[in-house]
Amino acid sequence: MLAHPLHLRLLSKADASVTVLEDVKYSSMDGELVGVIGDTWDLEAESIPVSWHSIKGLNKKSIPEIIRALG
């Protein structure tokens, strides 16, 4: 199988059943894909905090519509 650069960064370091073939490469429009051998891939992504900030705040007239949409 070929792994995208993002997949390579997320591959579990503890998963000894996966072998990355550094010499097997394929250039794609998404980046350079690299050969990977393994029955399954364990990807470990660090969770990122989700937040939101409004520069102007909420329009008070919009609050009921937002509540209905979230309900």
Brief account:
This is Putative ovule protein. With 71 residues, the protein is an alpha+beta fold. The chain is built from two helices and three strands, in the order βαββα.
Helix vs. strand class: alpha+beta
Assembly classification? single chain
Largest sheet: 3 strands, antiparallel
Number of strands: 3
Mind telling me the C-alpha Rg?
21 Å
Instruction: Give the termini distance in whole angstroms.
Output: 43 Å
- Treating each run of at least 4 consecutive H or I residues as one helix, how many helices? 2
Estimate the helix proportion, in percent. Answer: 10-25%
* Average residue-wise pLDDT: 88
Low-pLDDT segments, ≥5 res:
none
Overall shape: it is: elongated
Helix and strand string, N-terminal first? EHEEH
> Percent of residues in beta strands?
25-35%
Strand order of the largest sheet: 1-3-2
Description:
With 71 residues, the chain is an alpha+beta fold. It has a domain at 1-41. It has two helices and three strands; from the N terminus they run βαββα. A three-stranded antiparallel beta sheet has the order 1-3-2. A hairpin with a 2-residue loop joins β2 and β3. The chain is elongated and about 60 Å long. The N and C termini lie far apart (43 Å).
